[in-house]
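User: For documentation purposes, I need each entry recorded in a consistent format: the amino acid sequence on its own, followed directly by the corresponding structure tokens. There are two entries in this batch. Please keep commentary to a minimum and don't merge the entries.

Assistant: Recorded as requested. Entry 1:
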Amino acid sequence: MRFRHEVFLLFLFMILSVSILASGCSPKISCEEPNVLIGSSCCLDVNHDGRCDSATQMKEPDKHIPEVIDKPTHRINEPLPEELFAKKFESDWNKRNFNALYTKFSDDLQRKWSREEFNFMLKRLQVLKGIESVSFKGMIGNKAEFIVTLKDDKERTAGEVVKEGDEFKIRPFYIFDDLDINNICSDDECFSSFAKMSGNKQLCESAGELKDSCLEHFSDKNTLSKEIDYCTAIKDFYSKVDCLDNLAVKEKNIEPCWHNEYDEQIYGCMGLVAAIDDDPKLCKEYASSRGFPATRLQNAYCIMGFVSKTLNNSACSLIDRRDDVVLGAMAENCDNLRFS
């Protein structure tokens, strides 16, 4: 019995010895920060929470270390300044706002034609070409590409956008570099009207049966012409507008109105002249007096000028506001003019 007990103790001693030897021979695992020992292997523990970081956590930057990022001057989805300029050019062209369009052309066109000459010729050329709408498609290098929709066709064209001083301008292209009164006028009235508007007496020679009346205009207009020149020489914008408005009303003549710079002032001035006869329907006649129907917006400017003078709000109904937010707002403002 004693022998069995000794054998059992010897067997237990041998098992313990083997376990001790085995544990002494096993290599110890150590993990360098920011790794940590989890189980029998190392894993990344950047946030020191005693757990392995997930793939998402591993991508997060250390919140204690400020992240310095150079912000780009232009965002990927943000339009370039040249694109914004081209979109405004498209808008003015579609609205037939040729006075505003004129200001967007480079100096070489503005040196060649005055604002009034440009407006006169472009209105006619638009009709001759049958242009219905224009769509800006994007920039190709430094050129703005447009799709021009005609009555029966579409044409692709592009104009070079350049920087003149602090402003973007576009060089003449497409129909704009074809502006020439001899290519546009095909009747006596056209030559006579352009001669009177531009002050080019020589064009009366091309006015056919209207030649004599065209020449008489130049002999009789000296007084009015000098007064218009006086107004247009005024530097302050609003003082110049007031001078032309007062002259037009005094002479009951819309000629001074045409020498304003923008549609709002040109056609608003005509509304003041129409107010002399208390007839808002004259707006349509005055605004179309150079051979082409006025746009709805141009006619609205004239009605606004008429109502501002007469406070006759019934004329506001002549503003064609359908499907146009701007004209709708103008009609509402027109109704409120007598309360201002």
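Entry 2:
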Amino acid sequence: MTIKFGPNDVIRDEHFLVTKKEVRQTSKGDDYLQLELSRPEGIIEAKIWNNNLSQCQVEIGKVIEIKGKTQDYKGQISLIVDSCQIINSEEAQDYKSAPKTMVFDIETVGKKFEDLDEVEQDYLINNLEKGEADKEVAKKKTGLYSIFGMVCAIGAYNPNTRKGVVLLLGENELKPEKENYTYKIFKTEKDLLTGFWEIAKEYELFVTYNGDNFDFPYLQIRSGVNRVKVPFEIKKWGGDKFIDLQNKIRQSHGFKLEMLCKAFGIENPKEAGVHGGDINELFDKKDYQKIADYVARDAFSTSELYLIWDEYMSGKI
């Protein structure tokens, strides 16, 4: 995310973290410095021309105080540094740009058991749900499996901007339960998935709860079924880009999200009386409002849990 400056803004005594530094040459052979500078709201490129190099102190990982101006070159704003000096390096952590982060959750619905053919019914009951003793309960779990179900809603939340969006299969415009959310309605799963990936490709970090085992694989498979292109490679246990909080916050096994919300004092997304197991019935009744509000709460609560993990439990110093 680029720091917002206008063209020809005068910069006086503003502070930035130096994240990249490279010596380059002009067409005339003069050396200059190309920099990448960071602050919490984003990054920006900067240049120090040859005639100003002697008036500048620059070191990667240090915070510098800058005097200069901005310029607009082919629609891109950059800083032209006249002079700069290194200030207290202990402030460096405060100037790191936060990655553009999407915390998201999906909701799914499945075919009716009687609409499956005999082979599919047998596969569900005797393979996928063979551990479920109650066969009637097993028959209602088609939505858990991407070969028998589809994505009906996705809630996404950006903890940096504190804004969210819900993408939903539905018929009419809905009023968001939370003021910082917008709802987008789609007529087909293919359009919903296309809309999601268009948004997702602009993000650098993805946070889920059980996303390694459920959300991402489900989205990938349904995208393949619908012939919708996934715009980037998704890696299970993906380190710094894909964070599954169920893997990060566990003891001998993973906890349910609602139990962690209670333990950490976070709004429980299920307190309003809707659970994941209700989505099929709500979808059949066309009660899209309850689905949208529920997935919005789920994404928000997951985001609150992520912020606690990131600040106190991730081991970042």
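Summary note for entry 2:
The chain has two domains: 10-95, 101-313.
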